[in-house]
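FORM 7B - TANDEM STRUCTURE REPORT

SECTION 1: FIRST PROTEIN
SEQUENCE AND TOKENS:
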Amino acid sequence: MFVKKTFRSVIFSVIFSIAFISVTALESENQNYEDNEMERFVINSSELSLSNNQMDNFFHRLFGIKERPNSERKSRSRKHNTKRSQRYSPPNSNSQQPDSYDTGSSGSKSSDMSAVRNAPKPPLDRSRRDQYISLGSWEMGFSLFTTHTITDIASSKGLPISDFASFHTSHYSMGGGLFGRYLMNEWFAMSLGMNFVNLKANRDTPFVLGNNPVKSFNNDIFEFFTKSEFYLPGLTRTPFDLYGFVGIGIFFSDATIYDSNERLINIQDDYNQVQPFIPFGGGMSIKVTNTIKVGYEFGWRNTIFHYLDGVKNDNSYDHYFLNSLKIGIAF
């Protein structure tokens, strides 16, 4: 029995030793395999980084990019990069100046911002036109003008330009009126006005109308009108104005006709004394002061009326025009 027990013990010891040696060998083989794999991974990573560096160097040479040393690559801040210029410098503050501090009764210094807050500013350089014209401003004034008629008795219809100018420099009368202007902006205004216009003319040789030799006429006209005025925006920064206008109006006509002996002639034609007309023309002006403006205006009066001179000799309409001196006051 003892031999049997001893034999069993030996066999169990041998089997246990063989198992232990097998497990130890297997673990050692696994550890060697893991170490080989780690080494292979490290080698592949180094080769990959080397290939990337070679690729970067190739593109740097291709595009002419200079590599910075490692000391510059480590930091991109302006503080550490001495080769990069400073693009910003903080502005000077009046509150940090020595003069901007005062000592109170307690002896402590406090910051005085009045040097910044109450610093005087230069005035804006506004032109006289900008000072004169603003949105919604009004202008009132009066005008004095010479009046020129284009009628049958005046024999001024159909004249060439040279004769037309020569005729009207010696055949004219005077008139005057009032106007108001609303300046909406720098290029547009609306105007209202009324004028007293005296039209008269004398013929060198009378012409016969019926059985009456007609020599001259006189007509006192009262006109009322509204106009739209368009200014030239290019003169905004100057004291000058250049404008054109067009409008509509009505006038009251009362013509009287005289013969060569200055005797009144009665014409039996029936016509309406109140007639419409269309004023149009242009003008220019200059600002004398910030509130006073002086200018010249040429205004043509286009009518659909034959009896400005009291007679109808042909089928063409009678017209008249004004050469005006205008003085306006803005408020």
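SECTION 2: SECOND PROTEIN
SEQUENCE AND TOKENS:
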Amino acid sequence: MSNKEIELSEEELLKIEQELKSLEEKEKKSVTKGKLERDVTRISTGIPELDRALEGGVPKGSWIAITGEPGTGKSILCMHFAWAGLKAGDPVVYVTTEAEFRDIVRQARMFGMDFEQYRIHDISSAKELTETPNIVVIDIFGLLKIARQISESIPTDVETARKRRFAALDIQTLIAAIQEAYKILGVLKEGGKSPMRHVRLIIDSMSAFWADKPAMARKYSYELKIAAHRENVTTYLVSQYAMTTKSTFGFGLEHIADGVFHLWMDDVESSKEVVRYMIIKKMRMTNHARTAFKVEILPGKGFTLEPLK
């Protein structure tokens, strides 16, 4: 990437930050601190210990970044969140770029979560819907399908269309796919963009969208939040940690998130065992536990937390 391109991206980023700040200020107007505290609706994480650590669950409409290195349990946290939503009657949009959804279903079953009890629709499927699904799955094939539809709908020259056609891992493609999922779930009014009922959105992982351009992660994070943040949508966004630097792969997601669940493990070469931990680094609109938990991932139960002594 040239210096000129980076300069242009920074200018765009400033505009995006100003727009996001303006939106947040509008949300805050006429809302006193006391009223805000009384009006917080809690959304269960699906993990009792974590709900207690958050005074009953994450505030509705929050964007939660789940960060950590491979093997720490990030995807299992997402499974619990989706499962809790299904049991509560919330429709779920599940974006997966790291695994096929059938593998997620298989793994979740090992932890006592049977997603196949519910109606699942893959956005890439050509099958005609006969009834409204409970879960809409968006995988790499679904993103590719949406990218092609976007390419075909934009009048442009042949060369540009060819390049756009395969931009599956693009933020604009992701935004379009999420909107299409809302339509399939029947949660949008005619011509509307904001769901009429509460939806759980999971993106596992965001890192895939800037894998070849981590310097753009902050810009892309802002673009996504401006386009997709809704009061009736509570979101989990997974972000990988680089094994070499032990820091987020692509700075930006933690910055725009309302909450951050960070996971890590002891150095296995030194400890000679796998020992996992989690801490709530931040959470807006609620008090939360400030100390770390030890994580256990158990057959039939899944992700569990135990306070450190």
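SECTION 3: OBSERVATIONS ON SECOND PROTEIN
Residues 1-8, 29-37 have pLDDT under 50 and may be disordered.
The radius of gyration is 20 Å.

SECTION 4: SIGNATURE
Preparer initials: ____
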